[in-house]
Specification:
globular; 6 helices; Rossmann fold; 198 residues; six-stranded mixed sheet; alpha/beta
């Protein structure tokens, strides 16, 4: 998605350790017009698919998931919590997720009544890199015997193994901006679309 790629080049910042900061418009400050355009693109790609719920993980995926659900005509967004809440009643689907950003493991939970057998789920998140969060969300759906229609990511670091891990399981992956390389010294970001058009 050219608009997202250009925004990343203009307002993103590459940091050492394969870190890309996009907090001014994607996952801290949220550019709602860009969100709408991203959601509309996913809706175009998934046209004709029946979707019962959109699933994400707190916190940065929530806003994007909500806009995407509206674009898909989907009535419900569910987000997996990274910590226990006294408000969660009854039994829960649980899995473990490793955060490379924070270098720690989280137990993430969803109340069982919110993910049900045979529901058709679209998973939405801001980043796909090593795939730990994505695998965790996929595991929650497997436990619930729900069907994952597609996993949608705003930004994919294609030089990391996340996509391959998901595709090897037969999961449809729809990423809007696929990065082939980043250089923390120059700040340069190269996208797969650049290479395909060269």
């Amino acid at each position: 998605m050219r608009e997202l790629e250009e925004r990343m080049r203009h307002d993103g910042a590459v940091r050492p350790g394969n870190v890309l900061k996009v907090d001014s418009f994607l996952n801290h400050g949220c550019d709602m017009q860009l969100y709408q355009h991203m959601a509309d693109e996913w809706a175009r790609r998934l046209a004709g698919e029946k979707v019962d719920k959109v699933l994400t993980i707190e916190t940065s995926g929530i806003g994007l998931a909500c806009v995407t659900a509206l674009a898909l005509g989907c009535p419900t967004v569910v987000f997996a919590r990274k910590k226990e809440s006294q408000n969660l009643q009854g039994s829960q689907w649980r899995t473990s997720v490793h955060s490379y950003t924070h270098n720690r493991d989280y137990t993430v939970v969803v109340e069982k009544k919110l993910l049900n057998p045979n529901e058709r789920i679209v998973i939405v998140d801001d980043f796909l890199a090593n795939g730990s969060a994505a695998e965790g969300l996929l595991d929650l759906c497997k436990q619930a015997h729900a069907e994952v229609v597609a996993m949608c990511f705003a930004i994919e670091k294609s030089f990391q193994p996340g996509r391959n891990i998901l595709c090897e399981q037969g999961i449809r992956v729809e990423s809007l901006a696929r990065i082939s390389s980043m250089d923390a010294t120059t700040g340069e970001i190269t996208f797969i679309s650049d290479e395909s058009e060269a």
